Amino acid sequence: MEDSSEKVYSKRSSRREQFHFYNSLACLVKALEGSHTLVDLRNESSVAGYVVLVDGYMNIELSDVVYLDPRGEKYYFPQFFVRHRNIRYVHIPSEHKSVDLMQNQLKGLNYFKTGNKGKRSYKEVRARRYQKETLCSLNTENKS
Q1: Domain coordinates in residue numbering, the chain
Q2: pLDDT tens, 24-33?
């Protein structure tokens, strides 16, 4: 199941969505796909259920949901969708460690391109040279 969700995510996600995924905690919530969790909403209600899908904006799709409204009444839904702007907290289950979840999510995805960047412009070369000179002068000052 994990491979198919990654394929769906990579095919349907825009560059902006990928940016939000890598520059926010959406990757942590995406790592909770396939587990049960509790989501507190902005209107003092909460939703508990099985996380089916999380996108780059942190919209969450849940199944087998129990919705607890602010008055304490429970409602059951087979599927539930939570928009990112309505989320206050996402409770991470105690059996998961947040650092490990984030590292596993980020190492499997190739957002940053690596390799040869091509020929550098004169400005880049000059800036790099100036940076090296500054570092060398700081190192010699620290030694004396």
Answers
A1: 2-112
A2: 788 888 888 8
